[in-house]
Every structure is written in structure tokens, then in C-alpha cells.
Write a structure and sequence with these properties.
Strand order of the largest sheet: 1-2-3-4-5-6-8-10
CATH topology: TIM Barrel
Distance between the termini: 29 Å
Structural class: alpha/beta
CATH architecture: Alpha-Beta Barrel
Number of strands: 10
Shape: globular
CATH class: Alpha Beta
Strand content: 5-15%
């Protein structure tokens, strides 16, 4: 939709987004189950031998596989602050583009060829205790160091398992932050925890417990809350009401879900209404991006109003 029209309807959408809609509570459970089984834990570690580009569209990756504009970011988190988004909403495409699940990164492989292939400026790494661990014993550190040494920024998303006790969760975060925090441009708390029997109240408790650890171990890193699934907006809205002190950005995964799906612009309007920039840490379409028959990434032009957008690779 053209920007002038979006600006004209901004106020109307804002009023609708201030409270969870009934539709957000009635998403199709079968689609959630499909997404949870095939995507939540990001089990796939392989990568296509040859990336097949999707048809190009304006501002969207074409046959070269490039999704962003090459930048010259500062490695790590040095000197960075992220004040809340208190001004008028920026009705522009994302200012930064990133990729997640770079081939072999969680085992320590160099991600810089992938980052350059996609013309990205950020790398997202999910650290998880699930399925035998994914970089949670420091295996991803060589990957992270290689990215920062080459001038790329790194986002570390720390996932936990809902059956972990509160003490185990906090100890897990502390260990990962001590390992990866010094290299992080941003720290995300969770990865689609709304699909893992974590209630908004539980999430708020974890956030309150680990946010001071992030501030101590990665003081310059952007503190990112949410990292929710395509079905998680009302969940995050409740977590926000329960309390997310110190958050500096809210993160969504607004894939298109069949037969319907979230609107990244509407999500961005709600985030802006509570003074937060919106990051989409998955869901951007690109050659080789993760998708299924029911969960489909979106083209870049869908992300108007989003500050940062990531593609999650196969």
C-alpha cells in the first residue's frame, strides 16, 4: 500500500492495535502445530548447495541473492545506545537487513561469505538448549567472532526450554551472556517462546530476571523483547502489560500464514504506540529463506515501518 495511504490510516489502525483483537485469539491451531513442529527449534542446519532466487521485486532480493545495502557497521556493541522510538513513525523500509541461521554458524563456521552474499549488515544467532544444544557450549563463538572481526553486527537470541526451572533459566542466560555478550550488537530474550507453553507472565518474569544480566554483560547491546511467532501478538501485548522494563525494541516473526497471517505494518503500529521500534527477526523473503506450505516469508516491501528485518535461512 502506498505510503500516503498508510499515513492516512495510521491513527485508525493504532486505535485498533491498542488492545488484543478477538481474531488474534482464534488463530488456527493446526497451523500453529505445523510451525511449532517444523520451525520453532530451527533444527535444520543444512543449506542448499545452490540458492535458487525467487522472482525479483522492487527493493527485494533478485538473482544475485542480495537482500540489503552493504553498510560499514561497527563490530560488536561499542558505543551504541537505543532510545525508545518516541517520534513520528518512520514509514520507510527497514534501515538494516540481517540473516539468521548462516550455514554452520552454530558449529563455528565463518558466516561472512553468507553475509556478503545477501548484502546483509547483521547476523542473527539463536542459542538454544533444545535438541541437544545449538551453540550453547560456546560452539558458535568462532562464527560470532568472525562476523564482528569483519565489521558485521551480531544479534544473539537466547532460547530456553519451558520445563527449565527459574533458577536454571537464569543460570543458562548468565552463561550464554558471559560467552557471547561481549560481541553482541543486540540480545534477544527468547525465540518463539509463545509456542512453548511459556505464558506472558512467565516471559515477563524471565525478562525481569535476565534484563539486568544483559545490561551487565553486554551493556551496549540493544535489549530486544518478544521474538514471537506469527501468532504471538496478543501474547506479547499481555507480556508488555505484565512488564518488560528496560526493553529497547520489540521483535516479531510475521511470516504469512495460510490462510491468513499477521500484518507487519499493524504490528509496527502497535510497537510504536508503546514507544518501541519494531524488529522482525525472521520472516523476510530471500533466496534460500525458510518456508513451508503454510508459513511463507514476506517480500521487503511488506515491512514498511519496521526498523530491522531478518531472513531466516534453510
Amino acid at each position: 500500500m502506498p505510503t500516503p495511504i498508510r499515513a492516512a490510516i495510521l491513527a485508525g489502525i493504532l486505535s485498533l492495535m491498542l488492545a488484543p483483537g478477538a481474531a488474534a485469539k482464534t488463530h488456527h491451531k493446526a497451523h500453529k502445530a505445523h510451525h511449532k513442529t517444523h520451525h520453532r527449534h530451527h533444527r535444520k542446519t543444512g543449506h542448499p548447495a545452490a540458492i535458487t532466487a525467487r522472482p525479483a521485486s522492487p527493493g527485494h532480493p533478485g538473482t544475485s541473492g542480495r537482500v540489503g545495502r552493504q553498510a560499514a557497521p561497527t563490530a560488536g556493541a561499542s558505543g551504541f545506545t537505543a532510545p525508545p522510538n518516541v517520534g513520528p513513525m518512520d514509514l520507510a523500509p527497514p534501515s538494516m537487513i540481517g540473516v539468521g541461521n548462516a550455514p554452520g554458524c552454530n558449529a563455528g563456521a565463518d558466516p561472512t561469505p553468507t553475509l556478503r552474499q545477501y548484502n546483509a549488515s547483521l547476523l542473527r544467532v539463536v542459542i538454544s538448549p533444545l535438541n541437544g544444544g545449538s551453540g550453547d557450549n560456546g560452539q558458535a563463538l568462532p562464527c560470532v567472532k568472525a562476523a564482528t572481526a569483519a565489521g558485521f553486527r551480531v544479534m544473539i537470541s537466547i532460547q530456553w526450554w519451558s520445563v527449565m526451572t527459574q533458577d536454571q533459566t537464569v543460570a543458562y542466560f548468565e552463561r550464554q551472556l558471559q560467552t557471547y555478550g561481549p560481541y553482541a550488537y543486540a540480545i534477544g530474550v527468547g525465540n518463539e517462546q509463545d509456542l512453548d507453553a511459556v505464558t506472558p507472565e512467565d516471559y515477563s518474569w524471565v525478562w525481569r530476571a535476565v534484563q539486568p544480566l544483559i545490561a551487565a554483560d553486554a551493556p551496549g547491546a540493544v535489549r530486544v523483547a518478544g521474538e514471537i511467532s506469527p501468532w504471538g501478538l496478543s501474547w506479547l501485548q499481555q507480556a508488555w502489560r505484565d512488564g518488560l522494563p528496560g526493553a529497547q525494541a520489540l521483535a516479531f516473526h510475521p511470516y504469512t500464514t495460510v490462510p491468513s497471517g499477521p500484518d507487519p505494518f499493524s504490528d509496527a503500529v502497535w510497537a510504536h504506540s508503546v514507544g518501541m521500534p519494531m524488529w522482525t527477526t525472521e520472516g523476510l523473503d530471500a533466496p534460500g529463506a525458510w518456508s513451508s506450505q503454510r508459513v511463507i516469508p514476506r517480500p521487503l516491501e511488506d515491512f514498511i515501518g519496521v526498523r530491522v528485518a531478518f531472513a531466516w535461512l534453510q
